[in-house]
Every structure is written in C-alpha cells, then in structure tokens.
C-alpha cells in the first residue's frame, strides 16, 4: 500500500482525478448560477427585476430550474434517428469540459500541461460542431435541420479566424502550452501587444458558442428553436449546459491567452487563482452584455463578417506580429 | 505496458470503426464512424509522441473535412435513390476491381516486407516537443514540397470558386429577369415586353452590366423607368 502511494505514476493519476473532480463539479455549479446571473443581467438591462421568487433574491432559482428539467417528460420524435439523437446532447458538453482541462487556474493548478494545449482547445471546439449538426439532423424536423446546417457553416467559418487570431500569441510565446503562455505574461498581458487578435478572438468566441448576435442556428423568429426544437427534458438541459460551459471555457481560454491568466499583483501565489476568476467573470459578463445589447446578424452578413473581414484581419495580424518581432530582434 | 494496452484499444476502435464505415447502410452513421476512426488514429499518434500531428488530425479531418462531408450527406435525400440497375452494376464492378488492385498491392508489400517499420515506439522527444521539429523540417528541408503543395491547394480552391461563381452568375441572370417582371408596373406594356425578352435576343446583345444595375435599382425604388440601353436599341 505504501509503495503504491509513493509511486509517482499513481500520484499523478490520483491528483489528476482530484483536480478533475473539483473542476467538473465547480464548473457545473458555476454554470447553473451563471444562468441565474444571465437572467438577472437581462432583467437589469430590460428594467425588470429578473427571477426573485425562489429563495432570497432568487438565489435558489437554478436548483428549481434543474429539478424542473429532470422531471419533464422526455419526448423523442417517432421518425428520429434515436441513437444519434441521444448522442448529440452529450457531444455538446464533453468537448467544452475536455478543453477546460488545459486551463491553468492557478500557479500550481492545471489538470494537465499539454505541450499542444492550444491545439487541444481548437480541436475540441471543432468537435463541438457535431453536437449541433447531428442534433439538428437526427430530429428529422426541417427547422432543426436548417438550424444544424447553419451552425455547422457558421462554426467552420469562424473557427479559422479564431485559430489564426491565437497565432499572434503563439508567436510571442513560442509555445503551445497554456502554462508557458501564462508564464510569458508575467510582466504584461498579451492584450497590450495583440489588441486586434483579442477583439477577433472575442467576436469569433461569440460565434463559436452560438450566442447572440451570432445565435443564427436557433434564430427563434425563423427556425422555432433551431437545432434543439425536438429536444426536451434533460437532453435539452444538456444542450443548455453545453452552451454555458462553452462560454466559460472559451472565456477562460481568452483570459489565459490575452489577459495574463492568473498573473496579477498583490496576492500571494496560493491566492492568484482569484485573479483568474476575476478576469473570467469580466469576460463572461461581457458575453451577457453583448447578448442583450445587439440584434442578431443576418446570415449573409454573418458569412461576410467571418470570411471577408475577420479572416483577412487575423492574417494581417500574424504578418504584422511577425514583422514587428523580426524588427525588434534585429534592431 | 500502458502504451501497448492503449495501442491495442485504439487500434481495435480504429479497425472496427473503419469496417463499419464501409459496412453500415446509413451514410450519416458511416461518416460518424469515419470521425471515430480519425479520432482513434489521432490517439495512436499521441501514443507515438506525435502530439502535434494528433491534434492537427482532429482539427483538420474530424473537425473540418468530416463536418463538410456530413453537410453534403444531409442535403442528399437518400431514401429515393434513382440509380438504375446498370449504374449499380458499373459501380459494383469498379468497386471490385479497385478492391482487387488494393489487395494485390497489400499482398505485394507484405510479401516483400517493405512496409514494416520499427515495432517499438520512438523515445519521447524532449520539450518543446515535436511541434518545433515539424516546423523546422517543413520550413527548411521540405520547404519546396511544402510550398508546392500549398500552391496546388490554392489552384484547386481558385478553380472551385471560378466554377461556382460562373454558375451563380448564370443563375443570377434568371433571377434578374424574374425580378424585373415582378417589379415592373402592369400599365407599361412596352417596358414589360422588353424585360420579358431574353437578353441575348436583343440585336446588340444584352444591356451593359452597369446599365442593368441602374435599371434594377430604379425599378426597385418604384419608378417605371425604361432601361437606358433600351432607347438606343429601338
């Protein structure tokens, strides 16, 4: 027994499991309260109180929501492709949770420090497209199918600009590891060197998470509820969970890449994670702010923005970064 | 030990899903099994310490190419397959021939022991990993093939855009005529006939492109304007 406890492999696996457990549960808890926060923010912006009946000031609302979701009747359309219909909601949540494993929360708290961490995030966000596409297709409903197809086109288009906007950071750090990227921002966050990349990243992040003003896949005025029209009960809940987990994951990636992650003044190393969560909260609030402020884009506008503006801009950003680095090194 | 178990599991998933790609009847399910094959292949790359390759495999193949495949498959209505018996026979014949050729090739390779590489996985590359190694190889030793490949891809892309665009422009002309018809007031039969006529039926060919655009704009604004080219041709 003692040998086993001393074994470095065992320790690695054990601590990884502990970290995964903490992050998984923390994340799910945060997501449910994020939904409450979103509703409160929406209420504030529209001059109404928001949910305030369940518990003091509505703080127990998420629990009531989740219980309601679990007890709702589960309905699967008769002509649906049942296997894929059941897989799709899980596919919405898993990639978002997996990409959180590379985010350095504090100086000593990452689940894993992959040497290709940034690529893992991009890979997972490209896998996330399947949930929406397959969910829409397998429901055998025209609105759902159209929503699914729209989203796959949208996410593929914006993935390119997103990947390219991270290259500037990559060039400055010379590493794909998230831990290295945070360490490289010890003095100054990369947003000061890569402001354009940050803007592009946030816009594409909104599109990748299918949130307003890029929530075309579920444009309710045209497509009922889009890809999740036929989903009910906890399967719908999983799509919802996936969306909000995605928001948190993508905001933490943005925090890590551009805002310096857990780096910050005053606090000792053991409390540096507070900086991380503070920056994360600001970005998440930004997402909500945008959602309740801007109207939805039309489909052709969306495609034009992605391909004709964001993609060339992010390419130009790579070029300018490269030239500036070359100039500074050879001065 | 762990590496062997991982390899066995990933290889099993890879083989089974590759088989199901060709054996499953539903094309969407086939495509999904191909995705799972790509992902397990990426896993095998990871066990060989080729992290960059594994991730790029997922991003490019599983994330981009297969989504486009699915996209196309979903547009097809496969319940109503209008293929005749002859077409099926031809397709099957080609399939058998291609399969036989591939089998012969595989037999040749195995019999000459040509395809067998080192069995033990290579040692782990020290940090910063093989991303840098791939970058150095691509931009120094293999720079020319790399650039040629990107050139070929660029040409293919431009070709695809040209084909798609010329088709769309032809489509646009039909739309323009329809728009003209619906936008024109009934009280002016002179303009109506002019709009109805095929653009190629005009003695001087079609209207100049700029003219047509001005005409469209003015009609969409509600004015019954004769197209500028129309006066001179009459």
Explain what you see.
The complex is a heterodimer of chains A (331) and B (234). Chain A is an all-alpha fold. Chain A has helices spanning 2-6, 8-45, 61-71, 82-99, 117-127, 129-138, 142-173, 178-184, 195-208, 220-223, 233-258, 273-291, 299-329. Chain A has two domains: 1-71; 73-329, no CATH class. Chain A is built from 13 helices and no strands. In chain A, helix 4 (82-99) packs parallel to helix 11. The radius of gyration of chain A is 21 Å and the shape is globular. The termini of chain A are far apart. The mean pLDDT of chain A is 84. With 234 residues, chain B is mainly α. Chain B folds into two domains: 2-78 and 90-129, Four Helix Bundle (Hemerythrin (Met), subunit A) (Up-down Bundle), CATH 1.20.120.1200; 166-233, no CATH class. Chain B has helices at 2-23, 27-47, 51-75, 85-111, 130-141, 143-183, 189-196, 209-220, 228-233. Residues 179-189 and 198-234 of chain B have low confidence and may be disordered. The chains are: A mainly alpha (331), B mainly alpha (234). At the A-B interface, helix 5, helix 6 and helix 7 of A face helix 2 and helix 3 of B.
Helix content of chain B: over 70%
Structural class designation of chain A: mainly alpha
Could you state the oligomeric state of the chains shown? heterodimer
SSE sequence of chain B, one letter per element: HHHHHHHHH
């Amino acid at each position: 027994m003692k040998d086993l406890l001393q074994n470095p492999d065992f320790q690695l696996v054990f601590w990884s499991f502990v970290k995964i457990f903490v992050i998984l549960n923390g994340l799910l808890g945060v997501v449910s309260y994020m939904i409450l926060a979103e509703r409160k923010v929406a209420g504030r912006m529209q001059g109404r109180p928001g949910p305030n009946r369940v518990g003091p000031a509505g703080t127990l609302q998420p629990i009531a929501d989740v219980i309601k979701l679990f007890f709702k009747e589960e309905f699967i359309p008769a002509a649906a492709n049942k296997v894929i219909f059941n897989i799709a909601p899980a596919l919405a949540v898993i990639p978002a949770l997996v990409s959180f494993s590379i985010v350095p929360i504090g100086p000593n708290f990452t689940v894993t420090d992959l040497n290709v961490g940034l690529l893992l995030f991009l890979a997972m966000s490209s896998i996330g497209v399947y949930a929406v596409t397959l969910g829409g297709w397998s429901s055998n409903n025209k609105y759902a199918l159209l929503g699914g197809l729209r989203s796959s086109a949208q996410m593929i288009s914006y993935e390119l600009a997103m990947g390219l906007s991270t290259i500037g950071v990559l060039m400055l750090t010379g590493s794909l590891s998230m831990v290295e990227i945070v360490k490289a921002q010890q003095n100054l966050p990369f947003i000061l060197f890569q402001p354009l990349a940050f803007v592009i990243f946030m816009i594409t992040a909104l599109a990748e998470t299918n949130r307003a003003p890029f929530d075309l896949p579920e444009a309710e005025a045209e497509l009922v509820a889009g890809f999740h029209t036929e989903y009910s009960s906890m399967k719908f809940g999983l799509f919802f969970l996936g969306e909000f987990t995605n928001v948190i994951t993508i905001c933490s990636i943005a925090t890590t890449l551009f805002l310096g992650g857990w780096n910050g003044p005053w606090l000792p190393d053991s409390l540096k994670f507070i900086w991380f969560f503070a920056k994360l909260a600001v970005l998440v609030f930004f997402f909500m702010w945008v959602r309740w402020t801007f109207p939805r884009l039309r489909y052709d506008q969306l495609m034009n923005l992605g391909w004709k503006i964001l993609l060339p801009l992010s390419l130009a950003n790579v070029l300018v970064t490269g030239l500036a680095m070359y100039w500074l090194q050879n001065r | 030990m762990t590496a062997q178990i991982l390899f066995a599991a990933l290889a099993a998933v890879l083989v089974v899903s590759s088989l199901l790609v060709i054996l499953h009847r539903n094309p969407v399910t086939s495509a999904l099994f191909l995705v799972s094959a790509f992902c397990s292949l990426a896993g095998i790359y990871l066990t060989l310490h080729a992290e960059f390759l594994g991730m790029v495999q997922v991003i490019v193949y599983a994330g981009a190419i297969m989504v486009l495949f699915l996209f196309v498959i979903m547009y097809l209505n496969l319940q109503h397959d209008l293929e005749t018996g002859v077409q099926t026979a031809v397709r099957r014949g080609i399939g058998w021939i291609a399969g036989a050729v591939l089998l012969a090739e595989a037999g040749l390779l195995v019999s000459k022991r040509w395809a067998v590489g080192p069995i033990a996985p290579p040692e782990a590359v020290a940090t910063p990993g093989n991303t840098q190694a791939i970058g150095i190889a691509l931009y120094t030793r293999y720079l020319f093939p790399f650039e040629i490949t990107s050139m070929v891809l660029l040409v293919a892309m431009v070709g695809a855009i040209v084909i798609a665009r010329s088709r769309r422009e032809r489509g646009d002309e039909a739309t323009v005529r329809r728009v003209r018809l619906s936008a024109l007031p009934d009280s002016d039969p002179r303009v109506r006939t002019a709009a109805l006529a095929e653009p190629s039926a005009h003695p001087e060919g079609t209207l100049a492109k700029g003219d047509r655009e001005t005409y469209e704009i003015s009609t969409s604004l509600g004015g019954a304007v004769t197209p500028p080219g129309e006066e001179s041709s009459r």
